[in-house]
Amino acid sequence: MLRQILTSAVFAGVAAGVLAALLQLWLVVPLIMEAELFESGQRVHFATDGSTQSDRGAPSVWDEPLRHIYTIGFSAVTFTAYAFFMVAGFALATRAGHEITARRGVVWGLCGAIAVVIAPAVGMPPELPGAIGAEVVPRQVWYLSCVVLTLIGLTQIAFDGRSRVWITAPIFLLVPHLIGAPHLDTYFGVAPSELASDFVARVMGVAMISWVLLGLFAALIWTRSEEA
Amino acid sequence: MKKNAQAIAATQSQTQAKAAANADLMGIAGAVLLGLTLLFAAGFAQAGILHDTAHDMRHAMSFPCH
To answer: Of A70, A126, A139, which has the smallest distance from its Cβ to B59's Cβ?
Structure first.
């Protein structure tokens, strides 16, 4: 079991993490680099004369190769961390008599994306560089609490056969949003709103694909190493 | 005498199953701990160098960054 956990988590995590980073370098990182032009003042969108106009276009990702190698590396580490949680879940589910298959792995992945990216984004959307938010530690606490409560809600729906889950699961899913994420009472954004909405939509899209790949890879390796 | 041996064998296999189950639980706990360590380092630690090199990934993964 221990070897099964280690191999599934490491191989699936690194593979999904590298693929996720490539998708991000294609779709998300250029928007981060473009936002940095507004953060540093090289480009100004909200000019003092009241006009809101600026050029569109991101710097080339080929300008800073080392920076993107770090991104690929950290993406692999982060997805390996996610993979350890997912595979620990596989082990618990197997102990409880549930079967892990590649198709179920895809659903595990979708639930991971919902818990880690989509649900927290409802209270605290992914932010471009230059966005000024509330203090980072309370936001991290809210983010992690939202992830954990969403996971509890989703786990109940997936594995708890009792009918009371249709009351308790929505409570777990809604509580973080009823409490609400820490926010400032002022807008500070310097980047165009189009850039921010592009960024949020792409972060979510890439997260869905990356998590589905993680679930699929982890389940495939898990079932293979079970047979061995 | 035979019954006794059977009883001992049964207890032994129960003990082994229990040990295996405990080892599984240790493995699961270890996996969660490893996951937490990696996630904290990559996603949440505020130390300068970690923050700077993980910067784009943190934004792209929608972690609260700074």
So the answer is: A126
